[in-house]
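Handover notes (outgoing to incoming on-call)

Open items:
1. Class F sortase: sequence verified, structure written out, both below. Nothing else pending on this one.
2. Nothing else urgent.
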Amino acid sequence: MNRLPGIAAVALIVLGGATSSVSPRTAGGLLPPRGVATVSAPASSSLSPMKRTAPAPAPVQVLPEIQVKDASVKPAGKALPAPARIRYPAIKADMLASEVGIAEDGAMEVPDDAAIAGWYRYSAAPSDKSGSTIIAAHAGSIPTPRGPLYDLRESRAGQTIEIVDTKGATSLWKVADVEQLHKETLDLGPYFSDTGERKLVLFTCGGRWDKDRQSYDDNIIVTAIPAG
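Class F sortase structure tokens:
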């Protein structure tokens, strides 16, 4: 299996225009469209497995990306079939997936349209025997103000996620952990692993919307394990 490019200890999923590290190809400096309603993140509850740091209202528009380190050497893409479709019935998500790599600024590419997820081609394929399959999508975008993964924050342990690959094979995954973590303290190292037990990791943004920085404070991360 190809090794992942070196992953920075500091990793962010941020809104376009928030920092100088944002890739213009994935962000474009877009701001929340006028007239888009804000939706409050659900309050913390003892019945919810989500680990929260600061639940707060968050507008729909968000353009996430993952910062990676040392993208000068880009390994070849995976030979195994890539994810082609993601179905997550519990949050009514059904979306296509495309292969993405690393932008020139060292950020993981993410499709501009929130209706399409990006599979990090240097991570594990669905049929791999070890490592993490990394998939990220915008919570919202201009073409799709409320993306299929906007409700990722509503995920619960035990729910089933389906990944269909380019050969038509379907793999089933069971949600094991749901986290809402502040970007400034988040270490993505444990999530970006091409060794060890099989995992599926889904990313999007959430938490409080910081108007000054034009960015969400938190990342929503769902980790799932093979269901069978």
